[in-house]
Write a structure and sequence with these properties.
Layout (H helix, E strand, L loop, with lengths): L3 H22 L11 E3 L7 H14 L15 H16 L5 H20 L10 H5 L46 E2 L24 E2 L11 H8 L4 H9 L9 H9 L14 H18 L26 E2 L8 E2 L13 E3 L1
Parallel strand pairs: 1-6
Antiparallel strand pairs: 2-3, 4-5
Helix pairs in contact: 1-6, 1-9, 2-4, 4-9, 6-7, 8-9
Keywords: Copper, Metal-binding, Signal
GO molecular function: metal ion binding; oxidoreductase activity
Protein name: Tyrosinase copper-binding domain-containing protein
């Protein structure tokens, strides 16, 4: 039976789709951007475009690091991975969670384009399309062994290092079922993780369908109807390593393995598609009311003492890029972003 609550969710879904359509269809090229890169959903890309993106990621994994003094880093991809390990405690469950990751993914996109000749934009994985279906998430095109990122881990093909402190490293042992068995990254060696460990190991996964409830269109609609940035951010992000999962944690745990880890999740290239979709949901929320474009709030750290996050709060990207204030990344139609979602 179609309930009143179902009707509300349906209306919210219609509203969010209309807002996202407006992002491209009714907006002229913004001042300051020569053009807008169009971030598209993975399954809408032609096979050749998917392979171009995968090859660009593999290129980044083969380029030497810009900072030769960075411990264990052997590639530009490693440099991005290492920064997340360093900053994770500061950029999760805080007000800067969304703007920090927006800038982080943008820098990754820039590296793919400027250093590896990639002509497109960073794609996103609209996991709500997979969560809404009756099929397993493992059937998503992002897990295709040829035109995707490979599938599941093989049981028993990976073991955590002896004496690993799973609490300090926020590791869920059940998520690390084994090494990815197919696809373009099955033989790639990660230098960082799990957690804050520095160890050479394979890319691991344990794809789980029980996370679908946090990734469906209903969850997205419920988040975007919240009135304040802080309420929206909490509903989208959730709390790490607790039963209170939301879209952010649901995507990480749905993939499992390295992606499930609070610190080392960017070791899985799917991280950047997952966070592009989270950024897209934030963009939906921003566009619903004019005052939301520059609305920011929240604490600067999980534990006191902390300050309130404001538009002037610095986004520290370590050796990847200059530190800039949050206000500079709030509008994706302005530099340094200059992209949109289609």
């Amino acid at each position: 039976m179609f309930s009143a609550s179902s009707a509300v969710v349906a209306l919210l879904l219609t509203a969010t789709s209309r807002v996202l359509a407006q992002d491209v269809e009714t907006t002229p090229t913004p001042v300051g951007c020569e053009t807008l890169l169009q971030r598209r959903e993975w399954r809408t890309l032609a096979d050749s475009e998917k392979l171009d993106y995968i090859n660009a990621v593999k290129c980044l994994q083969s380029l030497p690091p810009l900072d030769p003094t960075l411990t264990a880093a052997q590639s530009r991809f490693d440099e991005f991975h290492a920064l997340h390990l360093e900053k994770a405690d500061l950029v999760h469950v805080t007000g800067e969670f969304l703007p920090w990751h927006r800038y982080y993914v943008k820098l990754y996109e820039d590296a793919l384009r400027n250093e590896c000749g990639y002509a497109g934009a960073n794609p996103y994985w609209a996991w709500e399309q997979d969560a809404d279906s009756a099929s397993s998430i493992s059937g998503s095109p992002v897990f295709d062994p040829v035109t995707g990122f490979g599938g599941n881990g093989g049981p028993g093909t990976y073991s955590l290092p002896p004496d690993t402190d799973i609490t300090a490293n926020r590791i869920d042992p059940d998520a690390f079922v084994g090494c990815v068995q197919d696809g373009p990254f099955k033989d790639y060696t990660l230098r960082y993780g799990p957690g804050q460990l520095v160890t050479d190991h394979c890319l691991t996964r344990n794809i789980r369908d029980d996370s679908a409830q946090f990734l469906d269109s209903k969850a997205m609609a419920e988040a975007t109807q919240l009135p304040t940035y802080e309420e929206f951010r909490i509903e989208l992000e959730g709390e790490p390593i607790t039963p209170t999962h939301k879209m952010h944690d649901g995507g990480h745990y749905g993939v499992g393995g390295e992606m499930s880890n609070f610190y080392s999740s960017p070791g899985d290239p799917l991280f950047y598609l997952h966070h592009s979709n989270l950024d897209r949901v934030w963009r939906m929320w921003q566009l619903m009311l004019p005052d939301r474009l520059y609305e920011i709030s929240g604490r600067s750290t999980v534990d006191p003492p902390y300050v309130n996050v404001t538009l002037d709060y610095p986004l520290d990207m370590g050796n990847l890029a200059a530190t800039i204030p949050i206000r500079d990344v709030m509008d994706i139609w302005s530099p340094p972003n200059c992209y949109t979602y289609v």
